[in-house]
Design a protein that fits this description.
The structure holds 2 protein chains of 2 kinds. Chain A is of the alpha/beta class. Chain A has one domain (6-115): Response regulator (Rossmann fold). Chain A contains 5 helices and 5 strands, in the order βαβαβαβαβα. Chain A has helices at residues 14-24, 36-45, 62-72, 87-95, 108-115; strands at 6-10, 29-33, 50-54, 77-82, 98-103. Chain A has a 5-stranded parallel β-sheet with strand order 2-1-3-4-5, with helices on both faces. In chain A, α2 packs parallel to α3 (62-72). Chain A is globular and about 35 Å long. By secondary structure, chain B is an alpha+beta fold. The termini of chain B are far apart. Chain B has 3 domains: 8-229, Rhopdopsin 7-helix transmembrane proteins (Up-down Bundle); 319-385, Helix Hairpins (Orthogonal Bundle), CATH 1.10.287; 394-535, Heat Shock Protein 90 (2-Layer Sandwich). Chain B is elongated, with a radius of gyration of 31 Å. In chain B, the strands form 3 sheets. In chain B, strands 4-6-7-9-8 form a 5-stranded mixed β-sheet. A two-stranded antiparallel ribbon of chain B has the order 1-2. A two-stranded antiparallel sheet of chain B has the order 3-5. Classes of the chains: A alpha/beta, B alpha+beta. The interface between A and B is medium-sized, with 23 and 24 residues.
């Protein structure tokens, strides 16, 4: 059996973490962080193939977290999760190395398809 | 000596002059602190000098008097186009290139001197079927070129703003449209000057000026939300009172000048000017008594209506501004709702697949239940916000309220590369209306975002000092001009393209209702600080 890819899910909302768990648990080895700081610490301590990051989080937002994660683990593939579907936010995320973004509320198929790029 | 029998043109000039002065006085007295109102008042006064001068010119039978009134009316003509330009600058909010304004005033003053003390501007008079008319002097053509250039430049500025329709709010565009067409039509009065060169063109182009005054006054008033019937009524009363005072005024000047000419055998412009100045000085203390007399005698029954109108206007003001804030709030809340919707949507999608999984069922009940409550709370907040504005005091944590407001504006700050710094003290619970106070924070923070279109920092702090709680919102934006700071909380004062000028006025009103104060400090190009002080109770 092919080794499952390891994905870190970072969102301050428990409901969103649980939702992504439901969608991805069968296909991926999942880990969770509830803040940007926790995500950065985990990426420094462990190996992940990809990370799903919420944009809006208290203290450290998704874009700041992404920047630091890229420094800690260059080449890690990141997907931004956002409630704000703005071109500016998307383009900022792409410039920081995100490979795609998922808009809330998301469709399960869309999540699977985009995470499949990791 | 010329015996004129046709007074129709004289009466037209008199009536348009009275209209101009009545409108100018009404707009000025409405709010003398607003620059635009001041300039419009002076603009109307200068044109009324022009028009009254023509009235007396057309009814005079004496050549010497004719020369006197020609020089008198040209005092108004000399400053008419520079005041059109000055008014346009104030209306469009143009602050730069002030040197052009000073230059125009300087040139107008030179022509004024040429008018009063030489015959280079006006060399005499023609006699037409309608009466005496000014005769162009040696420099009159230069004067005409100057007026045409100034008028053309003024219309160009208005037209330029008119063409920027996409950048203007609907109401602002309407105002610009009114002013542009009013000035384009009104300046057709220049046709009258053909007769100064010996061409007998019947001089009724001053009627275009009547259209100008009415349209400009309406553009100002309409924006300030006054009831037009009330305006017309008050304008009519002012016009009648002004006409009585003006006629008395001119009779006194005329008599003084007549007595002088009988005694000395000469006519004297300086004496006329001195008489005008003397009576103007006497008029200053009388002005308020006259205003009071008019209000008590003619508007006593409507004082209560005016008070009611003011209260209604304030409420309208607050409602309008609240609607804007609701739109921003709705955008922020729409995002807040997306999180719970995400959870509910995903969990319900998996019901079929996971209905026999007890762990899933437990999570479903907890998460979906919590998220539905959350959506309910968010919707309730929005409804509370849009309700009428009576204060509903409750103990509130200001720091938490600030955080809630900052959350709503998170995306706007992200979009504009604005960093938020928070510096909170340990805030006690304070009795405020959280919904209205949130509107205050929203307005202040929206202004800071507007002040930093290319990014910057917002610092939000709270501190306790002398039994009061201070909330400080500081930005590193473009700052506020020191001339504008004193008007920053005035209704309809706005430096923003498309701004209504209502936001800070509403903020001020809400803070006052809470028994608090708001102040502002600013340095241009460095940033501004708004400080709210609330009593701790």
């Amino acid at each position: 059996m092919a080794k499952q890819k390891r994905i870190l899910i970072c969102d301050d909302e428990e409901g969103v973490r649980e939702s992504l768990n439901l969608i991805l648990e069968d296909d991926y080895d999942l880990d969770f962080a509830s803040s940007g700081k926790e995500a950065i610490r985990k990426v420094k301590d462990e190996d992940y193939d990809g990370v799903l990051l919420d944009i809006k989080m208290p203290e450290k937002d998704g874009l700041e977290t992404l920047e630091e994660i890229q420094k800690a683990s260059p080449g890690i593939k990141a997907i931004i999760i956002t409630g704000y579907q703005s071109v500016e936010t998307a383009s900022k995320a792409i410039k920081l190395g995100a490979i795609d973004y998922i808009a809330k509320p998301f469709e399960s198929d869309e999540v699977k398809e985009k995470v499949g790029k990791i | 000596m010329f015996e004129n029998t046709d007074y129709s043109i004289a009466i037209q000039n008199l009536l348009v002059g009275i209209l101009a002065q009545g409108l100018g006085l009404f707009i000025y007295l409405r709010n003398p602190r607003i620059l635009l109102n001041k300039i419009f008042g002076i603009f109307c006064f200068v044109f009324s000098v022009w028009l009254y001068g023509f009235f007396f010119l057309y009814i005079t039978k004496d050549e010497n008097h004719a020369l006197f009134w020609i020089k008198f009316l040209y005092m108004g003509v000399c400053y008419s186009s520079v005041l059109s330009y000055h008014f346009t600058r104030a209306f469009l909010g143009i602050k730069n290139k002030k040197w052009i304004l000073y230059l125009f005033y300087f040139i107008s003053t030179i022509f004024l001197f040429l008018n009063l003390f030489t015959n280079k501007l006006i060399s005499g008079f023609y006699i037409y079927q309608w009466g005496y008319f000014p005769k162009a002097g040696k420099y009159h053509t230069y004067f005409m070129a100057y007026i045409f250039f100034e008028t053309g430049y003024t219309l160009y500025l208005l037209y330029k703003r008119y063409r920027q329709r996409n950048k203007l709010a609907a109401l602002e565009f309407e105002r610009v449209k009114y002013i542009f067409f009013a000035f384009a039509i009104g300046h057709l009065v220049l046709i009258n000057f053909c007769s100064t060169y010996g061409m007998p063109v019947y001089p009724n182009a001053h009627l275009y000026m009547a259209i100008l005054f009415v349209m400009v006054a309406y553009a100002i008033i309409h924006h300030q939300l006054f009831n037009i019937e009330f305006v017309l009524k008050k304008t009519l009363v002012y016009s009648i009172i002004i006409s009585i005072i003006t006629i008395l005024y001119f009779i006194i000047i005329y008599m003084a000048e007549k007595v002088f000419s009988i005694i000395t055998g000469h006519h004297s412009i300086p004496l006329a000017i001195a008489t005008i100045a003397f009576f103007s000085i006497i008029f200053i203390p009388l002005k308020n008594k006259i205003q009071q007399f008019i209000d008590n005698r003619f508007f006593h029954g409507t004082i209560e209506q005016i008070d009611e109108e003011n209260i209604k206007l304030r409420e309208e003001l607050q409602k309008t501004e609240k609607l804007k804030a609701v739109a921003t709030l709705a955008a922020g809340m729409a995002h807040e709702i997306k999180n719970p919707l995400t959870s509910i949507k995903t969990f319900t999608e998996f019901i079929d697949k996971k209905k026999d999984d007890p762990e899933f069922i437990e999570k479903f009940k907890k998460i979906v239940g919590d998220e539905v409550d959350r959506i309910n709370y968010i919707v309730k907040q929005l409804l509370e916000f849009s309700k009428p504005s009576e204060l509903k005091l409750q103990k509130t944590n200001i720091n938490e309220l600030l955080d809630e407001t900052l959350n709503l504006l998170y995306n706007d700050c992200l979009k504009h590369s604005i960093k938020i710094e928070k510096n909170y003290c340990l805030s006690p619970m304070i009795r405020i209306d959280p919904t209205q106070m949130k509107q205050v924070f929203l307005n202040l923070l929206l202004n800071t975002i507007d002040a930093m279109p290319d990014g910057g920092t917002v610092i939000v702090s709270t501190k306790i000092t002398n039994n009061t709680l201070q909330i400080i919102v500081k930005d590193t934006g473009k700052g506020i001009d020191k001339d504008d700071i004193k008007h920053i909380f005035d209704p309809f004062f706005s430096k923003k393209d498309g701004g209504t000028g209502l936001g800070l006025s509403v903020v001020h009103g809400i803070i006052e209702k809470h028994g608090g104060k708001i102040s502002v400090g600013s340095i241009v190009n460095k940033g501004s600080s708004f400080i709210i002080t609330l009593p701790l109770k």
